[in-house]
User: Which sequence fits this backbone?
């Protein structure tokens, strides 16, 4: 970051100074920025910073403004040095008592400064900021804000210190004190101040598109203007205006999504295709020879699918079923039926690990039942040579069961006769990805599998473009999972229990919280935790770990080892959350359970209890306050995903600002279908109203919407090109 140290001081000079800089700059800048202006046009962004931004997916001014803070902090009144708490962010108002000599370690300049305020003293360390020797005055008072540390000195006492604190004049500090300071997700080398500064710059030059909605509509729905919302989400004056800004942005996000889906629905409902697929001897025999009979619910859904596939219209169906209800076999049946009719079927999964698992399942069936079909895998981590072979087999039609990740929708993948598209565990903006895959064929049938058990009222809104089939029954051989919610003191017992289950030949998952980009310490959690388990568990127990930052090929290998039972205990982040099926695993232990949403915890729990043996789920909470425990008790009481989802909705209610985010298929950028359920309803009503007022909007020539959709271009799909 160019002149970051100077920027730090400059920022601390407060708003008037910045406004002056802005005015000067504005007169030099002829053209205003728009969404597509490259980030490099923002003042202070050089090639190096551009590259850092690119790392976190920010290339344009629009990307930057769309990257909302992940949290906010407030600047509290400075405290006395004697009451500064090690490990916490503190501000102290103190005098510079001594500026020590600058040291050089290789290329690094280290400057130590002592400060004191009468109650105590503290040592500050600055890296590569030698100019502070001159800028800070001996005896001068400043506010220093940073993380307080206590280092043991030789006498056994503790020396308080801060590294690289930010420096303010008292007045300037107080001016910031009543505001909420945004905290952005960062990458190494990019500071929060730097991002803040860029956002400020961008906001002042950004040419906002005019408001999409008319004043009446904004008033009726209690929404602020788009412009105000974008400015406020980055720099809120207080929590009330932040909540207002958030509401508007959530509304827009839901509105776009629902509007696109409605257009899609109108379009696809009238769509016909030439593939009428019927049962053949192969599929009938396959069903007869399956090692288990289909449940009643599976039977019912299979019939619905067959009816769709045999009709002249395109199928657009969603299978909704709780975790472990057996959705995969229905997808496999539909794929086999397609291949048996001489066409290609494709199955797209959100992760490589899951794609590989599905491929192996299908491959296993094909071999076992001697079916004359050819499955092929297509995932990003395959070598160029492997991919080329897969592309060729897909293009020639020789491969008729195509299974993979997003690689399936890349340009190079050309299909000969794609008649069925299945997407598993739909996630974020499923609509768009589904469409991209559908474009690979001529109006193929579409089957979507979802494991997010959402309350029916929400499902109708969120899946408005699909017919819904529900599997509301688990296979009969299942024992209900036994749950417990405990605090950390239970850990030693849990480890004993794990060791005993492993001894019985079972396998175990231990989940540690997901990590934010850049939070290296947390990332080590999984690694450290695995190490810790290796020490406490008997040496013959094989412990492995998995996290999102591993190379895809490594993730696949570890999962395969776990599936093949050469690993007994898998310590993982939530990367294993969706779809993983290892029926021999019987224990799921979730650390820091309080950090996850209930629906997500239910998904995690769904990784066990997938076979005939008794399974167990241990939720470990580091917080044992009443509220947390009550929330977790819901999981303890019930194994029913639909019930849990509606309880979650009931407990969390609307208006949660930065609540626990649910991951999964509906992870919108800012909206949360649970805590923002009321805004979702509002947006849904607004879309319906709009279409009622002007049914021709389905062919969106409407100017207002055109603008809206251009603004939201990142999420838009041109359905006319299907
Ligand atoms: P999900 O619905 O979570 O995707 P899967 O399709 O992966 O669940 O199925 C979970 C497990 O249940 C698999 O091991 C699968 O073979 C098994 N299964 C599916 N249907 C039945 C059934 N009718 N009877 C017994 N086991 C079944
Ligand atoms: Mg599944």
Assistant:
């Amino acid at each position: 970051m160019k002149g970051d140290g100077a920027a730090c001081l400059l920022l601390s000079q407060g708003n008037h100074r910045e406004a002056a800089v802005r005015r000067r700059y504005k007169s030099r800048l002829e053209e205003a920025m728009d969404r597509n202006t490259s980030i490099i046009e923002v003042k202070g962004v050089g090639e190096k910073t551009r590259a850092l931004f690119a790392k976190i997916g920010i290339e344009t001014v629009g990307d930057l403004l769309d990257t909302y803070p992940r949290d906010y902090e407030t600047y509290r009144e400075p405290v006395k040095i004697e009451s500064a708490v090690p490990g916490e962010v503190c501000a102290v108002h103190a005098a510079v008592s001594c500026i020590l000599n600058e040291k050089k370690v290789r290329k690094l300049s280290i400057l130590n400064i002592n400060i004191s305020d009468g109650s105590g003293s503290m040592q500050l360390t600055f890296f590569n900021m030698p100019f502070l020797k001159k800028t800070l005055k001996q005896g001068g008072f400043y506010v220093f804000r940073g993380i307080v540390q206590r280092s043991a000195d030789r006498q056994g006492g503790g020396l308080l210190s801060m590294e690289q604190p930010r420096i303010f004049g008292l007045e300037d500090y107080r001016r910031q004190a009543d505001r909420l300071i945004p905290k952005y997700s960062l990458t190494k080398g990019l500071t929060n101040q730097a991002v803040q500064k860029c956002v400020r710059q961008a906001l002042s030059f950004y040419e906002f598109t005019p408001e999409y909605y008319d004043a009446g509509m904004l008033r009726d729905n209690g929404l602020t203007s788009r412009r105000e919302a974008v400015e406020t989400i980055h720099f809120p004056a207080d929590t009330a205006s932040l909540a207002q800004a958030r509401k508007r942005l959530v509304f827009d996000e839901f509105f776009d999504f629902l509007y696109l889906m409605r257009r899609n629905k109108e379009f696809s409902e009238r769509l016909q295709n030439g593939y009428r697929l019927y049962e053949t001897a192969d599929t009938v025999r396959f069903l007869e020879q399956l090692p288990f009979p289909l449940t009643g619910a599976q039977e019912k859904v299979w019939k619905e699918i067959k009816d769709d596939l045999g009709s002249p219209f395109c199928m657009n169906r969603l299978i909704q079923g709780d975790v472990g209800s057996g959705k995969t076999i229905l997808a496999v049946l539909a794929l086999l039926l397609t291949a048996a009719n001489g066409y290609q079927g494709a199955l797209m999964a959100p992760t490589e690990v899951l794609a590989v698992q599905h491929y192996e399942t299908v491959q296993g069936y094909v071999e076992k039942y001697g079916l004359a079909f050819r499955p092929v895998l297509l995932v990003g981590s395959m070598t160029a040579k492997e991919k080329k072979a897969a592309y060729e087999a897909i293009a020639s039609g020789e491969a008729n069961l195509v299974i993979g990740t997003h690689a399936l929708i890349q340009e190079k993948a050309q299909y000969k006769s794609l008649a069925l598209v299945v997407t598993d565990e739909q996630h974020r903006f499923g609509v768009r990805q589904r469409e991209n895959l559908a474009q690979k064929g001529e109006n193929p049938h579409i089957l979507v599998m979802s494991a997010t058990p959402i309350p029916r009222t929400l499902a109708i809104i969120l899946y408005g473009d699909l017919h819904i089939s529900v599997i509301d029954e688990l296979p009969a051989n299942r024992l209900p999972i036994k749950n417990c919610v405990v605090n950390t003191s239970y850990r030693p017992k849990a480890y004993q229990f794990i060791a005993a289950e492993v001894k019985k030949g079972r396998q175990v998952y231990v989940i540690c919280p997901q990590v934010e980009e850049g939070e290296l310490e947390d990332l080590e959690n999984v690694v450290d935790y695995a190490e810790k388990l290796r020490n406490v568990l008997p040496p013959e127990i094989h412990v492995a770990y998995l996290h999102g930052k591993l190379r895809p090929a490594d993730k696949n290998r570890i999962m395969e080892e776990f599936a093949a039972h050469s690993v007994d205990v898998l310590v993982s982040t939530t990367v294993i959350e969706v779809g993983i099926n290892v029926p021999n695993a019987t224990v799921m232990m979730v650390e820091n359970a309080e950090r996850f949403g209930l629906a997500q915890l239910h998904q995690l729990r769904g990784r066990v209890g997938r076979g005939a043996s008794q399974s167990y789920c241990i939720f470990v909470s580091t917080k044992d306050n009443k509220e947390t425990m009550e929330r977790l008790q819901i999981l303890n009481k019930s194994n029913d995903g639909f019930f849990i989802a509606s309880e979650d909705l009931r407990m969390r209610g609307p208006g949660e600002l930065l609540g626990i985010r649910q991951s999964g298929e509906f992870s919108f950028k800012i909206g949360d279908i649970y805590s923002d359920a009321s805004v979702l309803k509002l947006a849904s009503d607004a879309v319906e109203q709009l279409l009622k007022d002007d049914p021709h909007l389905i062919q969106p020539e409407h100017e207002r919407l055109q603008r809206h959709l251009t603004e939201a271009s990142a999420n838009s799909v041109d359905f006319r090109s299907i």
